[in-house]
Structures are given as structure tokens and as C-alpha cells.
Design a protein that fits this description.
With 430 residues, the protein is an alpha/beta fold. It contains 13 helices and 14 strands. The chain is globular.
């Protein structure tokens, strides 16, 4: 039987060898019992099937024992590792890379390609349901520093959690890297912005809710022994955020120049805006991730916690229609904000067809310029490394990560994902 595990992603700004040595030593020190022999020396285990290339040191996930107390470890507290499930990583990689695309002929050669662009390219990337912020950090790690990553969430508590995580890994000089903490924070970080607002209406009508910008945050880092911003620093930060928000907002009324007009509001966006009474008021995005709120019926740990506490799930059969309507509005909002030639990934931690394939089918029926790019995580792996828990969805080109599938087949595998997951990659035709 495969033992339960959790996953970490290495912070690429720290020395890989040092991080792995520290993590391994901490696992042994905690004397976590993994199997009948108590063999913890095999950890951390590399998740090879998730690396875009064998030599890509920017994307390294490792499995560790589920009962390893990660939040108490030095490797975690120092910012050397992210606690992140492999399925979330898969969504980010499918969005940025064409490595996993099964049919590259779908995209026009003149359109935006679904891979990490060269160093001169500036990408705008949107994470429409961004909490807790780990996917935002991964996006920023993989993109060139001239890119901008925007995160949106409607909950103030969840946005605060995002801010804390981003500050730790992309602002704080002690935990963001490099290992020499006497050096300044490296300039390789992409700009990260957070909006506390409704993802179903973000970018339309009145733009508001900008609560964080990583560059502004770095400018207002407390000096000397102070650990928190003083009153004047907070006031300056607020003014800078308001100014950034004002610059981000553009009025689609012909007052902007032709180049901006073409980038911001192409004909297809204008048509949709008329139909929905929404006006796109910000520059469009090259890549968009919609990891939508769902019933979490694929999240094994969530299910176990609910069963242990006898708590009713937030979403159930009685209000499922309301949830599906929210998911449709989120994916519709994301597609509205996507450039022609851009890509969108829709994902959930549910294995419910109504929340997954049916939502994607609804979008495809609504927009003629939307189509699926089939993806596979077996494409770049040999038979020894190909994940057996990945299956095709009921809609052609979509995939599901189903850790329960192996149990049914009697298969044991070292690097099972910690949750069930659905993923679909959607292209916006030129």
C-alpha cells in the first residue's frame, strides 16, 4: 500500500543541494515512520513527471512524509521550500508551457505560444481565484522579471494570507533568497499585485480593490530594527497603490492610442462587452488561471477533516446549482479578460462532472473563438515515470488527477497527488 505523502516545491533562489540536504536531515531528525521498517532515508522523493524538462531546476517538487511537521522545519521557515501540492503545480505548468500540449496545430504560429517566453517578453498573467497564493508565487518564479502577475480573491482573510505568503517568498530579504542575506533582494522577481474584489466582475466597470504590489512593498520595507511599517509608511503605500490602480485602469472610449486600443479591446471583447453590459477597463492578459471554488470532493484531506468533525460541506446537492453558476461566471470573466492568442487553464479540486467538463462545455458553446488544447502529463515521461493516476476527462482533451484510481487498480506509486484534480487548457483563437 502506498503511504500518504505531502509535497514541497523548492525555492529556486536558494542552493538546491543545500536545501535538499537540510530537508533530508530534518525528516530523519523528526524520526517520522514511513513504512513498516521506519525507512525515512528515501525522502525527499523527486516528482519527475512534473518537470517540463529533465534539466529544469526552476520546477522541482518533492514528496515528503505526510506527518512531517513542515511548518516547524527550518527548511520551510527559512523560505527554502513551499508547501504545495503537485496538482496545483500541474495547473501552473500547463498554463505557461507547451510541453504538455498534445496538439500544437490548434494554435496559430502567429499567436501567443503556451510556453515560457524569452527574456525580452513581458507577460501579463492573471490568477483569478488566487488564495492561498502558492500558485502566484510559482508563476512569479517562472516568469521573467518584466512580467506582471495579478491575483484576485473576494475574501479579505484569504487575500491577507496571500499577502503573507508573497511577502515571505518574494519580498522579505531573509526568506526570499538568495542565501547571502547581506545582498539585496534579487531583481529576478516578477511584479505581483493583489486585488481584493469579485473575480466574476474584475476588470469591468469600476476598477478597485488593489491592496498589494510587491514593488511598492519593497520600497516601504521597515528600516533598522522596526518589524512593521509606521503610520507614514502605510500612508505612502496606500497612495502608491491608488496611483498604480489609476494607471492600470483604461477607459475604452477612443481616448487612448491605437496600439493600446488594439491590445486592450479587440473586436471579440467588444462584442461580448455589449452583450453582457460589461466594459473591459484594464489591459488584457496573456495567460489566465481560473482555479475555481468548488465542492472539494476530490480533496481527500478536506473530506477526512469534515468526516472527523461531522461538519456539513459548504457546497452540497442542495446548493450545487448555485456553485456551478459561480464557476461559469468565473470562467466567463477569465475568458473576457484573455487576449486573442492567449491561453486559460480552468481547474478544480473536484471530480464532479457538473463542476468540470460541463462548465468547460458551456464556455465552448458560448464562444466560437474558444477551443480546448488537449494536454497530457505522460507525454514527456518514459514508462517508468509516467503517472498512472492521470485519466482523460469525459470531455475530450481534459484530464483528471485521480489518486483513488490506483487503489482500485491495486497500483502502488511513490508520488501520488494529495488531491483529486480536474484541468482543462483553453485557447482563444485569433
Amino acid at each position: 500500500m502506498t503511504e500518504p505523502k505531502r509535497y514541497v516545491r523548492l525555492n529556486p533562489r536558494f542552493d538546491r543541494g543545500e536545501t535538499l540536504s537540510l530537508l533530508k536531515a530534518e525528516i530523519v531528525q523528526q524520526q517520522t515512520t514511513i513504512d513498516g521498517n521506519g525507512d525515512q532515508n528515501k525522502y525527499p522523493l523527486p516528482v519527475n513527471w512534473l518537470r517540463p524538462t529533465k534539466d529544469d531546476g526552476q520546477v522541482e517538487f518533492y514528496a515528503i512524509p505526510e506527518d512531517f511537521r513542515l511548518n516547524r522545519s527550518t527548511s520551510f521557515r527559512s523560505g527554502r521550500v513551499y508547501g504545495m501540492d503537485v496538482t496545483s503545480g500541474a495547473a501552473v505548468l500547463a498554463l505557461l508551457f507547451d510541453t504538455y500540449d498534445c496538439d500544437e496545430s490548434i494554435k496559430s504560429p502567429d499567436g501567443a505560444e503556451s510556453k515560457r517566453d524569452d527574456e525580452l517578453t513581458q507577460l501579463r498573467v492573471l490568477d483569478l481565484c488566487c488564495a492561498p497564493g502558492l500558485k502566484l508565487c510559482m508563476l512569479a518564479d517562472l516568469l521573467h522579471f518584466s512580467s506582471t502577475v495579478v491575483g484576485v480573491d473576494i475574501s479579505q482573510n484569504r487575500i491577507q494570507l496571500c499577502k503573507n505568503i508573497i511577502k515571505k517568498y518574494h519580498v522579505n530579504q531573509m526568506t526570499s533568497g538568495p542565501k547571502d542575506h547581506n545582498k539585496e533582494v534579487p531583481s529576478s522577481h516578477s511584479t505581483i499585485r493583489l486585488y481584493c474584489t469579485d473575480g466574476t466582475t474584475f476588470g469591468t466597470g469600476q476598477l478597485s480593490g488593489l491592496v498589494f504590489d510587491s514593488n511598492v512593498e519593497k520600497q516601504e520595507l521597515p528600516k533598522g530594527k522596526r518589524k512593521r511599517q509606521n503610520k507614514s509608511a502605510r500612508a505612502r503605500e496606500k497612495r502608491r497603490l491608488l496611483e498604480l490602480q489609476r494607471k492600470e485602469k483604461v477607459v475604452v472610449d477612443g481616448s487612448i492610442n491605437n496600439e493600446q486600443q488594439n491590445e486592450i479591446c479587440d473586436e471579440s471583447v467588444s462584442n461580448r462587452s455589449t452583450e453582457t453590459n460589461n466594459t473591459c477597463c484594464i489591459p488584457l492578459f496573456d495567460r489566465i488561471l481560473v482555479d475555481a471554488e468548488c465542492s472539494t470532493d476530490g480533496a481527500i484531506k478536506h473530506i477526512q477533516k469534515r468526516e472527523a468533525s461531522s461538519k456539513e460541506p459548504l457546497w452540497n446537492d442542495s446548493n450545487m446549482s448555485e456553485l456551478v453558476d459561480l464557476q461559469k461566471r468565473l470562467i466567463d470573466s477569465g475568458f473576457l479578460l484573455l487576449k486573442s492568442g492567449g491561453t486559460l487553464v480552468y481547474s478544480t479540486c473536484s471530480l464532479n462532472e457538473r463542476q468540470n467538463e460541463n462548465v468547460v462545455s458551456w464556455l465552448l458553446d458560448k464562444y466560437d473563438d474558444a477551443c480546448i488544447i488537449p494536454v497530457s502529463f505522460n507525454k514527456q515521461n518514459d514508462s517508468q515515470q509516467a503517472p498512472s493516476f492521470v485519466e482523460q476527462g469525459s470531455l475530450a482533451g481534459t484530464i483528471r488527477f485521480n489518486p483513488l484510481m490506483n487503489a482500485k487498480k491495486g497500483i502502488t506509486e511513490d508520488c501520488l497527488p494529495g488531491t483529486g484534480f480536474f484541468l482543462s487548457k483553453i485557447y482563444k483563437r485569433l
